[in-house]
Write the structure tokens for this entry.
Amino acid sequence: MDIVTEAGRSSVERIELQLVADDATLAVVWPDVERWLLRAPKYWQDHFAIEDIRKFVKDGKAQLWVEFDEGGPHIAAITEVIEYPKKRALKVLWVGGSDVKRAFQSLGYIEIWARRSKCETVEILGRPAWLRLLKPFDYREKAVYLEMDISSLWEM
């Protein structure tokens, strides 16, 4: 398990966000992560089954970040490195846990890891309220994500 040790965003307390990099740790933290994911399935279930998310992480196609307190895992994030033709970016796919506001304070660790991984930007696709929560951390709205279900359309 990698631990990013630079100072976090909080000036009051040290936050240690850990990158889950082995199967044994994934097995330990997954029940909590799955429980948090299942609280808000509308944000991922159109694209993934819960088993797909775990496999995505296990196979190294996504990164699982977890912060622990004395009671065990209490926040988590899932990210994915995206290779665009002109740049490399880290996309935050999901953030959850017992204190999501605190999770955003931990993004500094993910940003450092992304920079070390040669990413130029961090992208976050999230709820509208996240814009307000992330503004103090220099995140800005760049676009609006729209989606239309066309599965019931048929050709003439």
